[in-house]
Protein backbone atom coordinates (compact mmCIF):
# COMPACT_ATOMS: atom_id res chain seq x y z
CA UNK A 1 0.00 0.00 0.00
CA UNK A 2 2.79 2.43 0.91
CA UNK A 3 4.60 1.70 -2.36
CA UNK A 4 1.43 2.48 -4.31
CA UNK A 5 0.85 5.74 -2.45
CA UNK A 6 4.44 6.83 -2.94
CA UNK A 7 3.94 6.76 -6.69
CA UNK A 8 1.06 9.24 -6.59
CA UNK A 9 1.67 12.80 -7.73
CA UNK A 10 1.13 15.31 -4.89
CA UNK A 11 -1.62 17.88 -5.37
CA UNK A 12 0.92 20.70 -5.32
CA UNK A 13 2.63 19.20 -8.37
CA UNK A 14 -0.50 19.05 -10.52
CA UNK A 15 -0.67 21.49 -13.42
CA UNK A 16 -3.51 22.34 -15.84
CA UNK A 17 -3.80 20.08 -18.86
CA UNK A 18 -3.86 23.10 -21.18
CA UNK A 19 -2.04 26.44 -20.90
CA UNK A 20 -4.20 29.35 -19.68
CA UNK A 21 -3.99 31.09 -23.07
CA UNK A 22 -5.35 27.99 -24.84
CA UNK A 23 -8.11 27.57 -22.26
CA UNK A 24 -9.15 31.21 -22.62
CA UNK A 25 -9.17 30.91 -26.41
CA UNK A 26 -11.34 27.80 -26.33
CA UNK A 27 -13.73 29.43 -23.87
CA UNK A 28 -14.07 32.48 -26.11
CA UNK A 29 -14.60 30.30 -29.19
CA UNK A 30 -17.29 28.15 -27.57
CA UNK A 31 -19.06 31.14 -26.07
CA UNK A 32 -19.08 32.89 -29.45
CA UNK A 33 -20.46 29.81 -31.22
CA UNK A 34 -23.21 29.31 -28.66
CA UNK A 35 -24.11 33.02 -28.80
CA UNK A 36 -24.26 32.94 -32.62
CA UNK A 37 -26.52 29.89 -32.46
CA UNK A 38 -28.76 31.67 -29.96
CA UNK A 39 -29.20 34.76 -32.15
CA UNK A 40 -29.67 32.63 -35.27
CA UNK A 41 -32.50 30.63 -33.69
CA UNK A 42 -33.94 33.80 -32.15
CA UNK A 43 -34.10 35.39 -35.60
CA UNK A 44 -35.82 32.31 -37.04
CA UNK A 45 -38.50 32.45 -34.36
CA UNK A 46 -39.14 36.10 -35.18
CA UNK A 47 -39.43 35.18 -38.87
CA UNK A 48 -42.08 32.59 -37.95
CA UNK A 49 -44.10 35.35 -36.27
CA UNK A 50 -43.42 37.87 -39.03
CA UNK A 51 -44.61 35.65 -41.88
CA UNK A 52 -47.60 34.31 -39.98
CA UNK A 53 -46.58 30.66 -39.86
CA UNK A 54 -48.15 28.26 -37.41
CA UNK A 55 -46.93 29.29 -33.97
CA UNK A 56 -47.27 25.91 -32.27
CA UNK A 57 -45.67 23.26 -34.46
CA UNK A 58 -42.79 20.81 -34.48
CA UNK A 59 -40.60 23.51 -36.01
CA UNK A 60 -41.30 26.18 -33.40
CA UNK A 61 -40.93 23.74 -30.48
CA UNK A 62 -37.66 22.49 -31.97
CA UNK A 63 -36.39 26.07 -32.33
CA UNK A 64 -37.50 26.94 -28.79
CA UNK A 65 -35.57 23.97 -27.37
CA UNK A 66 -32.48 24.96 -29.36
CA UNK A 67 -32.83 28.58 -28.18
CA UNK A 68 -33.01 27.57 -24.52
CA UNK A 69 -30.09 25.14 -24.93
CA UNK A 70 -27.88 27.78 -26.55
CA UNK A 71 -28.82 30.34 -23.88
CA UNK A 72 -27.86 27.99 -21.04
CA UNK A 73 -24.57 27.02 -22.68
CA UNK A 74 -23.68 30.66 -23.37
CA UNK A 75 -24.42 31.54 -19.74
CA UNK A 76 -22.31 28.66 -18.43
CA UNK A 77 -19.27 29.41 -20.57
CA UNK A 78 -19.46 33.12 -19.72
CA UNK A 79 -18.61 32.16 -16.11
CA UNK A 80 -15.28 30.73 -17.23
CA UNK A 81 -13.84 34.10 -18.23
CA UNK A 82 -13.44 35.57 -14.75
CA UNK A 83 -15.30 33.53 -12.13
CA UNK A 84 -14.62 29.84 -12.72
CA UNK A 85 -14.74 28.88 -8.99
CA UNK A 86 -18.21 30.36 -8.72
CA UNK A 87 -19.44 28.14 -11.56
CA UNK A 88 -18.41 25.12 -9.46
CA UNK A 89 -20.15 26.38 -6.30
CA UNK A 90 -23.62 27.11 -7.61
CA UNK A 91 -26.79 26.32 -5.72
CA UNK A 92 -28.90 23.24 -6.56
CA UNK A 93 -31.26 24.94 -9.03
CA UNK A 94 -28.66 27.02 -10.94
CA UNK A 95 -26.30 24.04 -11.03
CA UNK A 96 -29.00 21.79 -12.49
CA UNK A 97 -30.08 24.43 -15.02
CA UNK A 98 -26.57 25.06 -16.33
CA UNK A 99 -25.12 21.54 -16.19
CA UNK A 100 -28.00 19.02 -16.32
CA UNK A 101 -30.84 20.80 -18.10
CA UNK A 102 -28.96 21.14 -21.45
CA UNK A 103 -28.61 17.35 -21.59
CA UNK A 104 -32.35 16.99 -20.97
CA UNK A 105 -33.05 19.50 -23.73
CA UNK A 106 -30.90 17.48 -26.12
CA UNK A 107 -32.92 14.37 -25.32
CA UNK A 108 -36.21 16.26 -25.73
CA UNK A 109 -35.01 17.43 -29.15
CA UNK A 110 -34.20 13.85 -30.12
CA UNK A 111 -37.63 12.61 -29.04
CA UNK A 112 -39.27 15.49 -30.90
CA UNK A 113 -37.51 14.43 -34.11
CA UNK A 114 -38.66 10.87 -33.47
CA UNK A 115 -42.24 12.01 -33.04
CA UNK A 116 -42.16 14.03 -36.25
CA UNK A 117 -40.86 11.22 -38.46
CA UNK A 118 -43.02 8.61 -36.72
CA UNK A 119 -46.00 10.80 -37.51
CA UNK A 120 -44.94 10.93 -41.17
CA UNK A 121 -44.76 7.12 -41.31
CA UNK A 122 -48.12 6.61 -39.56
CA UNK A 123 -49.88 9.31 -41.60
CA UNK A 124 -48.84 7.46 -44.75
CA UNK A 125 -50.25 4.18 -43.37
CA UNK A 126 -53.48 5.60 -41.94
CA UNK A 127 -54.87 6.30 -45.41
CA UNK A 128 -54.93 2.55 -46.12
CA UNK A 129 -55.32 1.25 -42.58
CA UNK A 130 -57.30 3.65 -40.33
CA UNK A 131 -56.67 1.49 -37.27
CA UNK A 132 -53.01 2.58 -37.38
CA UNK A 133 -54.03 5.87 -35.75
CA UNK A 134 -54.03 4.03 -32.40
CA UNK A 135 -50.42 3.06 -33.01
CA UNK A 136 -49.48 6.72 -33.41
CA UNK A 137 -51.06 7.51 -30.03
CA UNK A 138 -49.09 4.68 -28.45
CA UNK A 139 -45.84 5.97 -29.98
CA UNK A 140 -46.54 9.47 -28.71
CA UNK A 141 -47.22 8.11 -25.23
CA UNK A 142 -44.00 6.08 -25.29
CA UNK A 143 -41.84 9.08 -26.22
CA UNK A 144 -43.54 11.33 -23.68
CA UNK A 145 -42.97 8.67 -21.03
CA UNK A 146 -39.31 8.33 -22.04
CA UNK A 147 -38.87 12.12 -21.77
CA UNK A 148 -40.45 12.20 -18.32
CA UNK A 149 -38.30 9.27 -17.15
CA UNK A 150 -35.15 10.97 -18.45
CA UNK A 151 -36.06 14.21 -16.68
CA UNK A 152 -37.02 12.44 -13.43
CA UNK A 153 -33.76 10.46 -13.25
CA UNK A 154 -31.63 13.54 -13.89
CA UNK A 155 -33.49 15.65 -11.32
CA UNK A 156 -33.39 12.95 -8.63
CA UNK A 157 -29.70 12.26 -9.18
CA UNK A 158 -28.91 15.97 -8.96
CA UNK A 159 -30.95 16.40 -5.75
CA UNK A 160 -29.51 13.31 -4.06
CA UNK A 161 -26.00 14.27 -5.08
CA UNK A 162 -26.39 17.77 -3.62
CA UNK A 163 -27.83 16.44 -0.35
CA UNK A 164 -25.28 13.60 -0.26
CA UNK A 165 -27.98 11.00 0.34
CA UNK A 166 -26.21 8.40 -1.82
CA UNK A 167 -22.77 7.47 -3.04
CA UNK A 168 -21.62 9.65 -5.98
CA UNK A 169 -20.47 6.63 -7.99
CA UNK A 170 -23.87 4.95 -7.57
CA UNK A 171 -25.75 8.04 -8.73
CA UNK A 172 -23.41 8.44 -11.67
CA UNK A 173 -23.87 4.79 -12.61
CA UNK A 174 -27.67 5.00 -12.49
CA UNK A 175 -27.72 8.25 -14.43
CA UNK A 176 -25.37 6.98 -17.12
CA UNK A 177 -27.19 3.65 -17.52
CA UNK A 178 -30.64 5.20 -17.81
CA UNK A 179 -29.69 8.29 -19.82
CA UNK A 180 -27.37 6.53 -22.27
CA UNK A 181 -29.81 3.66 -22.76
CA UNK A 182 -32.63 6.08 -23.60
CA UNK A 183 -30.36 8.02 -25.94
CA UNK A 184 -29.36 4.85 -27.80
CA UNK A 185 -32.95 3.59 -28.03
CA UNK A 186 -34.17 6.93 -29.39
CA UNK A 187 -31.27 7.11 -31.85
CA UNK A 188 -32.08 3.64 -33.18
CA UNK A 189 -35.76 4.57 -33.36
CA UNK A 190 -34.95 7.71 -35.34
CA UNK A 191 -32.78 5.72 -37.75
CA UNK A 192 -35.61 3.20 -38.24
CA UNK A 193 -38.11 6.00 -38.90
CA UNK A 194 -35.82 7.58 -41.48
CA UNK A 195 -35.42 4.22 -43.22
CA UNK A 196 -39.19 3.76 -43.33
CA UNK A 197 -39.68 7.29 -44.66
CA UNK A 198 -37.16 6.62 -47.44
CA UNK A 199 -38.60 3.18 -48.29
CA UNK A 200 -42.16 4.48 -48.48
CA UNK A 201 -41.16 7.53 -50.52
CA UNK A 202 -44.25 7.70 -52.77
CA UNK A 203 -46.66 7.88 -49.83
CA UNK A 204 -44.49 9.78 -47.34
CA UNK A 205 -43.29 12.35 -49.88
CA UNK A 206 -46.85 13.68 -50.28
CA UNK A 207 -47.09 14.45 -46.56
CA UNK A 208 -43.58 15.94 -46.43
CA UNK A 209 -44.12 18.12 -49.49
CA UNK A 210 -47.27 19.50 -47.88
CA UNK A 211 -45.02 20.61 -45.00
CA UNK A 212 -42.57 22.31 -47.39
CA UNK A 213 -39.84 19.68 -47.52
CA UNK A 214 -38.92 16.49 -49.36
CA UNK A 215 -37.81 12.98 -48.45
CA UNK A 216 -34.21 13.80 -49.39
CA UNK A 217 -34.16 16.94 -47.25
CA UNK A 218 -35.75 15.11 -44.33
CA UNK A 219 -33.19 12.29 -44.51
UniProtKB/TrEMBL annotation:
<feature type="transmembrane region" description="Helical">
    <location>
        <begin position="61"/>
        <end position="81"/>
    </location>
</feature>
<dbReference type="InterPro" id="IPR029723">
    <property type="entry name" value="GPR137"/>
</dbReference>
<keyword id="KW-0812">Transmembrane</keyword>
<protein>
    <submittedName>
        <fullName>G protein-coupled receptor 137</fullName>
    </submittedName>
</protein>
<feature type="transmembrane region" description="Helical">
    <location>
        <begin position="137"/>
        <end position="161"/>
    </location>
</feature>
<feature type="transmembrane region" description="Helical">
    <location>
        <begin position="93"/>
        <end position="117"/>
    </location>
</feature>
<keyword id="KW-0472">Membrane</keyword>
<dbReference type="GO" id="GO:0005765">
    <property type="term" value="C:lysosomal membrane"/>
</dbReference>
<keyword id="KW-0458">Lysosome</keyword>
<feature type="transmembrane region" description="Helical">
    <location>
        <begin position="181"/>
        <end position="198"/>
    </location>
</feature>
<keyword id="KW-1133">Transmembrane helix</keyword>
<feature type="transmembrane region" description="Helical">
    <location>
        <begin position="27"/>
        <end position="49"/>
    </location>
</feature>
Amino acid sequence: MESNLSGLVPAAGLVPALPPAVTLGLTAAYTTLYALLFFSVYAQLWLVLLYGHKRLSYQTVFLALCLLWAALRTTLFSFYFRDTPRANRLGPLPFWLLYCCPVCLQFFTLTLMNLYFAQVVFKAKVKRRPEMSRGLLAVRGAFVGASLLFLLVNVLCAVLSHRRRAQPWALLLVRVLVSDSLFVICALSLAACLCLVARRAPSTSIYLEAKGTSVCQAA
